[in-house]
Amino acid sequence: MVLDHNPNRRETLKAGAAMAVSAALPSAAAAQAPARLKLRVLETTDLHVNVVPYDYFRDGPDDTVGLAKTASLIKAAQSEAKNSLLFDNGDFLQGSSLGDYIAYKKGLKAGETHPMLAAMNALPYLCGTLGNHEFNYGLEFLEHGLATAEFPLVCANVERISGYPLVDPWRLFEQSFEDEAGAKHLLKIGVIGFVPPQIMQWDKANLDGKLSATDIVDAAGKHLPDLLDAQPDLVIALCHSGIAGGARRGMEENAALHLSKLEGIDVILTGHQHLVFPGGKAFDDIPGVDNVKGALNGKPACQPGFWGSHLGIVDLELEKRGGRWVVADFKVEPKPIYERTPDRKIVPKAAAEPAILASVKADHEATLTYMREPVGSTASPIHSYFALVTDDPSVQIVAEAQIAYARPLMAQTRWTDLPILSAAAPFKSGGRAGPSFYTDIPAGPLALKNVADIYLYPNTVQIVRIPGAEVREWLERSAGIFNRIDPAGTGEQPLINPGFPAFNFDVIDGVTYRIDVTQPSRYDNDGKLVAPDSRRIRDLAFAGQPIDEAADFLVVTNNYRASGGGNFPGTKTTVVLAAPDLNRDVIVRHIVGRKAIEPKADGNWSLAPLPAGLEVTFLTSPAAVGKLPAGLRAEPAGDGPDGFARYRLLA
């Protein structure tokens, strides 16, 4: 039985509560000892239309994702427990190529079932909440999707401009459970949901003038009293918001820890961060967070990864005390669908459920066709054979897409007048991965799966604010990929430092500069300042003038870099926007929106000229023959080690 939140039905709720208490009264014999009841709460979160264990970009199976695999864990977890409830914590309508196919190609008409919901309808979800990505395709698309959900959704901090809720703020469910002595009890389970209020910024074009979003904790304070008036035995918060420390200032994106302080909430299911709790390193040393037991201010909490990677399992022991049920003990386990061995091999821990695969079979196959068909075109080839020695189109397209994405977002903030730069690295540049590990997309039709060649990692977009002086330091750190070239040297001098990962070689678009590799690297491979008097970055300019080192700039980057990855100066504590979108998705949207692109390198950086007579070499793929970029003075210099080709720079 489901009881509505409508305040006009308050008396109905109270009457229902009295009936529930009456129905749940234990026998006289059982009343001699407190009743103990075990209840297993299961959670999925951030599924992002990952149903089939398949990587549509790489066009092959992927054992690390997919609700079809999580479903087998759900089935096993339910078989192990007398009593269980399944919830979803949001971000289910957008994310994978299957989701893009529905949104961009097939469309979703009224009455049609979205494949993600078809898969979820095949599972016994009791309730769900909305994630921020549910709003990416507009309200009509969202409402068409939700109309076919066979389970209710709740969200307390979003409402229409008219004042009416978009979905119910909370729901009350009456279900019968069996205690450890075999007695039946009718419990009322209250469920309340939340989404980051930043949806009004992230999806302003879709939501402005239609919806409003409020602070998560404030919304809980508004709606919890109504829910508690209905006398629930247990209240579960579906909080599509992550776990972060620090003082509460209001409108937090990651507010689960603050929410846990409110009386009346018993369990918090979190998400949004795409992390695993308990156990994730990001949650160490945060006051109020028990990263071993899985608790926020003493209350059980879980965050089970993303894309179906884990099933959240919260085992509760409820005890009847003074006529009401309380959480006497709990255990939290985010259970994975795979494990990664020390040598980086993937070991599946779950099989795909055939019924889930069958529910999306037609749309999955249509997505494969969609991903393989051209969705645009590129007038220029996109390859990364020379990306470490000259400005390169494979990096240029990332820079262009990131800036196009950032401009409208930052126009809504107090940083609207700051210049926007873009940092991107050539991910596929040979190295330890071998001579075939390069991007190579010919001019002509461009398929979505080609984007995986351009941007390998599932990073999310972040924007940092730094002064011009730190733009220079960022580039100095990046220039550590080059060995120092001795201008008086007489033998061969390899240019590239093999111990420096290419994903840390950031090119910053929006400024111009040269790199003088005859100078020592200012930073070592670990980002430690080792040569404070050395400067490799020369002629750094913005808008044709020497950069103002005191002026502020916005740099679009990814969550890895913005969180300190690579130990770049000026990034870790200066984030002004942690966007909800993958960098890869930003590139996809850039291509889809423009249809025809021409990602030519703009030559904003180059190596400073070297003295004549030096033998400076670098390695690339043998497939680079005939693809030397215009303006790069280099020539083949024979075979290199391990199947690479050697090239020589010319003065």
Which helices and strands, and how do they pair?
Blueprint: E1 2-3, H1 10-23, E2 36-44, E3 54-55, E4 60-61, H2 67-79, E5 84-88, H3 97-106, H4 115-121, E6 125-129, H5 139-147, E7 153-154, E8 158-160, E9 170-178, E10 184-194, H6 199-202, H7 204-207, E11 211-213, H8 216-229, E12 234-239, H9 256-259, E13 267-270, E14 276-277, E15 289-290, E16 295-296, E17 299-304, E18 310-321, E19 324-336, E20 338-340, E21 346-348, H10 354-359, H11 361-372, E22 374-378, E23 382-383, H12 393-410, E24 420-424, E25 440-441, E26 444-447, H13 451-454, E27 460-467, H14 468-478, E28 492-494, E29 507-509, E30 512-515, E31 537-542, E32 545-546, E33 552-558, H15 559-562, E34 575-582, H16 583-594, E35 596-597, E36 605-607, E37 615-620, E38 634-639, E39 645-649
Parallel strand pairs: 2-5, 5-6, 6-7, 10-12, 12-13, 13-17, 22-35, 24-33, 28-37, 30-36
Antiparallel strand pairs: 1-9, 2-18, 3-4, 8-11, 9-10, 14-17, 15-16, 16-17, 18-19, 20-21, 22-26, 23-25, 24-29, 27-33, 27-34, 30-31, 31-32, 37-39, 38-39
Structure summary:
With 651 residues, this protein is α/β, with parallel strands linked by helices.
Task: Write up this protein.
The protein has 651 residues and is α/β, with parallel strands linked by helices. Helix content is 22%, strand content 29%. The chain has 16 helices and 39 strands. The strands form ten sheets. Strands 1, 9, 10, 12, 13, 14, 15, 16 and 17 form a nine-stranded mixed sheet that branches. Strands 7-6-5-2-18-19 form a six-stranded mixed sheet. Strands 29-24-33-27-34 form a five-stranded mixed sheet. A hairpin with a 5-residue loop joins β9 (170-178) and β10. Mean pLDDT is 91; it is low at 1-31.
